[in-house]
């Protein structure tokens, strides 16, 4: 039997009628649970089956072929399926939606979009509601994911936060018509900076950041309109686009001052994405 202490030979008594069953290991089991758990953890962190096989042999003296490692790793699949089908809480205060691109192991390594929804319940508890993988980010996948969340019991959301993916606000209105929508101000700022001259970026960033640092929605609107006036001559196309999404920029000011820092951007979910990438 392969164990974390190396291979151990186990003598199994045999009786004439074949009725003996020992309780130390299940029948025909050749690997300890600890080693199998180690393989699953390494696989979930993106280590290849061949690398896992080499590591286990060097560390524990137990030989596994890449195919054996792959078969053991498949034990995760029922748990993953159960996770995607689990019943959800009926109410979340806030749900963050974001997609990040990761190199995923298929026949080759390809960068694919991992869609993630993280929610905060009324009691402050955070939960990864669901995730899915697709070749790229598009609103059809988000729509299907939102509908799936609702069918599994999530009936009420106070506030959604997301970036500017086309069609998101419409998809949310269809699935959760009573929910409010806050566009991520960090994504908005990045998009602005990508469209302006390098020499102006620092000034624009510093001025735009002031929008979420005000004490009231009225003050924030005044700062935003001042921003329009300041940069409209140089970047009329940028300001025009900003005015079109203005109703989604200051929604977070409708909530208590104590939580605004957490709901003006999707930074919380991006921190989670960075952990996944590591």
UniProtKB/TrEMBL annotation:
Which Pfam families does this UniProt record tie to the protein?
Transposase_mut
What are the protein's GO molecular function terms? Answer: DNA binding; transposase activity
**Would you say which domain of life the source belongs to?**
Bacteria
Q: Name one GO biological process term.
A: DNA transposition
Keywords linked to the UniProt accession: DNA recombination, DNA-binding, Transposable element, Transposition
The family database entries (InterPro entries) matched by this protein are listed as:
Transposase_mutator
Q: What does the UniProt record say this protein does?
A: Required for the transposition of the insertion element.
Record-stated family: Belongs to the transposase mutator family.
Protein name (database record): Mutator family transposase
- Native source organism of the sequence: Lactobacillus crispatus
């Amino acid at each position: 039997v392969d164990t974390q202490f190396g291979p151990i030979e186990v003598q199994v008594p045999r009786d004439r009628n074949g009725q003996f069953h020992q309780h130390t290991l299940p029948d025909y089991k050749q690997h300890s649970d600890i080693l199998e758990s180690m393989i699953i953890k390494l696989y979930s962190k993106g280590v290849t089956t061949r690398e896992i096989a080499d590591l286990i042999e060097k560390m524990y003296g137990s030989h596994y072929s890449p195919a054996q490692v792959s078969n053991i790793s498949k034990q995760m699949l029922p748990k993953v399926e159960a996770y995607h089908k689990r019943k959800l809480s009926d109410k979340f205060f806030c749900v963050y939606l974001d997609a990040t691109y990761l190199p995923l192991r298929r026949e080759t390594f390809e960068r694919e979009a991992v869609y993630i929804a993280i929610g905060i319940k009324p009691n402050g508890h955070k939960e990864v509601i669901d995730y899915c993988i697709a070749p790229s980010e598009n609103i059809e996948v988000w729509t299907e994911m939102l509908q799936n969340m609702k069918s599994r019991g999530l009936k009420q959301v106070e506030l959604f936060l997301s970036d500017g993916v086309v069609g998101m606000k419409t998809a949310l209105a269809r699935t959760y018509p009573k929910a409010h929508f806050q566009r991520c101000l960090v994504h908005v700022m990045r998009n602005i900076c990508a469209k302006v001259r390098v020499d102006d970026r620092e000034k624009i960033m510093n001025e735009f950041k002031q929008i979420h640092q005000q004490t009231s929605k009225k003050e924030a609107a005044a700062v935003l309109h001042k921003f329009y006036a300041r940069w409209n001559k140089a970047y009329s196309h940028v300001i025009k686009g900003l005015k079109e999404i203005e109703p989604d920029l200051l929604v977070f000011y409708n909530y208590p001052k104590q939580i605004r820092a957490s709901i003006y951007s999707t930074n919380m979910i991006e921190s989670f994405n960075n952990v996944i990438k590591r």
